[in-house]
Amino acid sequence: MNGHYANGDATSNKEPSYERVQLINDEKQFMPELTPQMGRWGLQNAGFDYNIVAVFGSQSTGKSTLLNRLFGTNFDVMDETRRQQTTKGIWMCRAKGMNTMVMDVEGTDGRERGEDQDFERKSALFSLASSEVLIVNLWEHQVGLYQGANMGLLKTVFEVNLGLFGKKTADGRSQRTLLLFVIRDHIGTTPLENLKTTLTADMQKIWETLSKPSELQDRQLSDYFDLSFAALPHKVLAADKFESEVLELRKRFADKSREDCVFKPAYHKRIPADGAAFYMEGIWEQVQNNKDLDLPTQQELLAQFRCDEISTAALAEFSEQAKPQRRPIESGKVVDGLGSMMRAWRSGALSRYDRDASRYHQGVYSRKRADLVSVLDSTLSPLFLGQLKNLHKLCLVTFKTEMLEGMRGEGYNFADVVGAARERCEKRFLEGAQEASVEGTDWSYDDELGLLKEEVRGVADQCRKDETKKMVNVIERNFKKQISEPVEIALNKPESDMWDKVLSSFRSTLQKAESSYLAKAKSFDCTEEENTTSLGALRKRAWLALRAKIDEQTSDAAFLTKLRVHFEESFRYDEQGVPRVWRPGDDIDGAFKKARDQTLELIPLYSKIQPIDPSLAYTLPSETSDSLSEVDDFDFPATLIMFTETKILDLMSRFRRDADAYYVEAKRSTVSSVAQ
Ligand code: GDP
Ligand code: MG
Description:
Layout: E1 21-24, H1 34-41, E2 51-56, H2 63-71, E3 89-94, E4 100-106, H3 110-113, H4 118-130, E5 133-139, H5 151-165, E6 177-184, H6 192-208, E7 225-231, H7 239-254, H8 273-289, H9 298-322, H10 326-330, H11 338-357, H12 362-406, H13 414-436, H14 446-491, H15 498-524, H16 528-553, H17 556-571, H18 588-600, H19 602-607, H20 645-675
Parallel strand pairs: 2-4, 2-5, 5-6, 6-7
Antiparallel strand pairs: 1-3, 3-4
Helix pairs in contact: 2-7, 4-5, 4-8, 9-11, 9-12, 11-12, 12-13, 12-14, 13-14, 14-15, 14-16, 15-16, 17-18, 17-20, 18-20
């Protein structure tokens, strides 16, 4: 019998009915009775002013008894003497004296009787999803027992509930529910505080091991549930105490002004009373139809439990193996054979897991295996990336060393040296990176390789620049050597085409220098731009070298010597090159003047670099900069001037003094020859 206990006048407007109604029948169908029944309960127009309470717990733990005591309802209570068979289903009743609807689940204890637990799980899920307060009813001695306290079922229900209803509601709230743990037959030797701690830790553990949808990975238990606790003494052994404590507990439901009232606005589903039946029907439909909700069988529950344990053990051993390699990698070492180690740890962990876990429910086994793989890989991946980073550094250093070695001595071909070193470097990296890779992962070393190639290119470029600089320096040195003698010879012959000679040997020497640069630059793979810069620098330095050589040849002392030599040649030697012996009557004055004036005329010739043949005139744009060294820019036209006007006058007067001395000496020599 379904037990429609009539309770007062069902049709009266003043006195609401307390008749109970079957919400879900034993065929797992949602019954159409709720809406009319709510009218009879007088709740149809309650708006939001109503609450829903449900209960969860093992069979025969006094759930119905508790509900009837708390709410004055008339749910069936198992009568030990008659062992009456109650009808499976979910029942609902209105609480006396409160706008509260109470749900009770009647069912067989599937676990004990070895029956299908589908109904038990669906009804538990329905209770959790539709109520504001879920009373979790358990014996004191069940606290801390996973199986005994139905925690496995609770975990499954949490899991499915999160998947189904875990996302935020349209108005952005998370659905919150209060889990009110009621501990039955509380003897009192273990204080409620301690039981609370144990239960809270259990809940937390259950939550952590839940498989959560990926977008809800970070959600905490506290995002969805508040936990509250109450304990009741033994109903038979401490009957009076039991009754009074139940009355105390009832106040937490009945009196909304109390601070510990279980009904908080956050728990309310915000469904107006007249829509409640429809809403609950929708929830039941989701519970019934959702594929994910082909609730795990006992086999699956067991599998989840065992696979977790096996996975944890495999992971612990794996972590132990992986740990010692972390530090060397972090400190920058390339660990030899890291890849083969990682492959061994990984496959070791998986085969341990497979060996023990594959006997369990296949779906659970492979789901947990995927979880394990992702944990293993997230441990190995930093090692892989660290190894790549260290390998990259090592390869780059080796590349530099090999380049420098290859360029030791003469006669190497720069491009060949770089090419060979680069090839070895990339090969070394690829070998190392491939060794470190682990099959079955999506790890890639492409980025690191790309980075390495880029840096190798940078190093080679820098090296080429340095080499080019060195080469330009060598060419400059050679140039200086080669230009020295021709300039000296030309400047020692003060003829009108003196500068033409200087400039034409400058030109031919520079040409040689340039072609020697270009020949070498080819093996350096220099760019057009680099060549332009280097040649510019070379020309400028060549010019400065020439100018320095000329400066040396026209320093005051050297130049005055040149003048003196020239003067002496014409004054002290005759046309045949025979030294003159002055006799009285010789025209010393005439010869002196001639020699002196001719010599003075040379000064303007030296004062400016000016060829007769204009095609020999060398020009250099004054802004030519020398990026290869830090030589300041200079004013090219100014470098053509050897002596300024003032300098010319100074040199003339100094030469005159020298010449005068010769004159006096010549005069003296005639006097002395007369005296002989
Ligand atoms: P339900 O299956 O969880 O709804 O349990 P019932 O309310 O039908 O009760 C099952 C049996 O436990 C009945 O014989 C009750 O008399 C008994 N019972 C109810 N409450 C308590 C209690 O607090 N302590 C003890 N020891 N027994 C209880
Ligand atoms: Mg019951």
